[in-house]
Amino acid sequence: MGLNSISQRLSLSKDPNFVNSRNYRSVKNSDGRNGEWTEEIEYLDESGSVIYSGKGLRSVEPGVDDHVMVGGIKKPFLNASAVAKIVEVVKRWKWGPELETQLDKLQFVPTMTHITQALKVVKDSDACLSLFRWARRQSWYLPNDECYVMLFDGLNQNRDFNGIQSLFDEMVGDSSNNGISSFTAYNRVIQYLAKAEKFEVSFCCFKKVQDSGCKIDVQTYNSLITLFLNKGLPSKAFEIYGSMEAAGCLLDGSTYELMIPSRAKSGRLDTAFKLFQEMKERIFWPGLSVFSSLVDSMGKAGRLDTSMKVYMEMQGYGLRSSATMYVSLIESYVKAGKLDAALRLWDEMKKAGFRPNFGLYTLIVESHAKSGKLDIAMSAFKDMEKAGFLPTPSTYSCLLEMHAATGQVDSAMKLYNSVTNAGLRPGLSTYTALLTLLANKKLVDVAAKMLLEMKAMGYSVDVSASDVLIVYIKDGSVDLALRWLRFMGSSGIRTNNFIIRQLFESCVKNGLYDSAKPLLETYVSSAAKVDLILYTSILAHLVRCQEEENEKRLMSILSATKHRAHSFMCGLFTGPEQRKQPVLSFVREFFQSIYYELEEGAARYFVNVLLNYLVLVGQINRARCVWKVAYENKLFPNAIVFDQHIAWSLDVRNLSVGAALLAVVHTLHRFRKRMLYYGAVPRRIKLVTGPTLKIVVAQMLSSVESPFEVSKVVLRAPGDSVMEWFKKPIVQQFLLNEIPSRSDILLHKLNTLFPSSAPEIRSLSPPKPLIARRAM
């Protein structure tokens, strides 16, 4: 190649900064001296004319020498010329072994400056990458941040993210081996991968860069946070945000727009609100999405004041509330029970031109209905229908049930007809509420029709019909209850034994004995067991009965119970020949059959009523036997107390009237025997009667001039006085058999002396004297 050709291709520069630092070298002989050239060399131009002639020069060794010889003068390669040569080779050979061969034959030693400048000229990413990788294998190679940036730019333009990842790994290796940080290139890679939504690769690169100690810029942090928030991975975004805070970096406006809603929706309300305040302090203008997320999340969390504050602040920014925000606010206030505020927002929403949706109408109607504001609920309900929305069965049910609960029969039935006319199937709760309302209003025929419609709808009506029956029973409407029971029977609807028993008890209580007996027979025939309490309650009605005809009916009912207590009652009134055992043994045998762990209370109730009855009919000896056995079986524990020589006492507070009278006489008889026969005399004797039995017992004892003094709840007397009193013959006769007969008691008003067989109910009116005062 001639000199002119070389001069035309390379523009020479005098700038010393571009001179290679390597020393010029010349060939040496074997003895170490510089080689000399003796031949005359002629330099010709293209036409063959001699341009220059002089001593010969040795050829330049490519890839080793960084100069050319012009005559005897060493001329360095200029950077521009070197770059141009590299670009020419790369553009021609592109890539592959041939390219590397041609680059190895370059007549100069390139530098990283040459490579970087060449990469700026060569646009082809594959060719650039080939040139770079050839340079990496050279001894003069040094990592260059700018070089990597250009390569990553080219790969990103070609969307070659696998190439980016591979080159990134090479760059990490270069940086660790040479101790050189590629700040710009590192961040550029992460940003490109994040924008391409390669979240796993980008996060991996982020961690590698972070571990290497390289600084990550704000744009990279924001691009990563944006990526993970858009991918629905807030936890990763928060992790990156934590690293960002530790590094002292701040979010940009667009990332605030993503970060605040994400924080709010994940329940990190304090952090979200802190970012919101920080955003405003940095003069970023919050968008509607930020306000909406805060209003919605704060409202759902019950922080209504903060939610409303953000809402008002949004209006101050001139932003118009969306329909979604109105719905969220209204729902929050409704769920918090603040219906007035919800209604104001409801009106504001409609004034703003938004049309409430189906769900919001339903919420307003049902919430106001359940709170008892039926006028507002019905107004919204009518607006809902005008808007073309068909209310759901639950909405109808809510309105109907609330009208039923307030006793508005007409409104409830009108809503029911609307449900059926709309082709909807009323729910079970709706039917139950209507039936309860109709039962309370005593509209038996309408309730019966409603029950049949309910049955036709496929519902099981046994429970609902029984509920109506219970309403009538509790209300004391026994005639309506019996009428409803007959309707149930004719319609094939059954009820349970518990309700049959309740209705039976109501019939007995109201004197409907003819209706009560068939109910009891139904109860017994259905394998239900009449317990001692039920039998005793019937016996209690017999005790208070004053008409012979009703007594016969009640005796018939007692017989229909088939309870063992009735067999005992019958045996008690028979003679010893038929019983084949004494009364006391017979009574003891019956009480031994009672399972006291379960029936102790029932047995105590039975003894009280039975003693009332036995005293009433004048069966004193039998009554004494019953009381004695009951006391032996500890049905009335601690009724009699012997406190040595200090005090003897009898407690009759838990006894019925008849039982109390009998217990007083029987116990005083025991005290008399103990004192007269054994000589044991206490300081005092007490009869603890309570306020209700005090007058009855005192009246009975005053007939025989007893020494007992009456106080508030106790009759007491000194032991010596009682001892003298016991010695009187009239007292002995009184204690043995002077309980009043049936005729005596009937003369003094049965209901006054025996107001109730239940021991907890007493009469406070004093009875008349039971027996005439006798002269000593």
TrEMBL record:
<feature type="domain" description="Smr">
    <location>
        <begin position="650"/>
        <end position="726"/>
    </location>
</feature>
<keyword id="KW-0677">Repeat</keyword>
<feature type="repeat" description="PPR">
    <location>
        <begin position="217"/>
        <end position="251"/>
    </location>
</feature>
<comment type="similarity">
    <text>Belongs to the PPR family. P subfamily.</text>
</comment>
<dbReference type="InterPro" id="IPR002885">
    <property type="entry name" value="PPR_rpt"/>
</dbReference>
<dbReference type="Pfam" id="PF23276">
    <property type="entry name" value="TPR_24"/>
</dbReference>
<protein>
    <recommendedName>
        <fullName>Smr domain-containing protein</fullName>
    </recommendedName>
</protein>
<dbReference type="InterPro" id="IPR011990">
    <property type="entry name" value="TPR-like_helical_dom_sf"/>
</dbReference>
<dbReference type="InterPro" id="IPR033443">
    <property type="entry name" value="PROP1-like_PPR_dom"/>
</dbReference>
<feature type="repeat" description="PPR">
    <location>
        <begin position="322"/>
        <end position="356"/>
    </location>
</feature>
<feature type="repeat" description="PPR">
    <location>
        <begin position="287"/>
        <end position="321"/>
    </location>
</feature>
<dbReference type="Pfam" id="PF17177">
    <property type="entry name" value="PPR_long"/>
</dbReference>
<feature type="repeat" description="PPR">
    <location>
        <begin position="392"/>
        <end position="426"/>
    </location>
</feature>
<dbReference type="InterPro" id="IPR002625">
    <property type="entry name" value="Smr_dom"/>
</dbReference>
<dbReference type="InterPro" id="IPR057027">
    <property type="entry name" value="TPR_mt"/>
</dbReference>
<feature type="repeat" description="PPR">
    <location>
        <begin position="357"/>
        <end position="391"/>
    </location>
</feature>
<feature type="repeat" description="PPR">
    <location>
        <begin position="252"/>
        <end position="286"/>
    </location>
</feature>
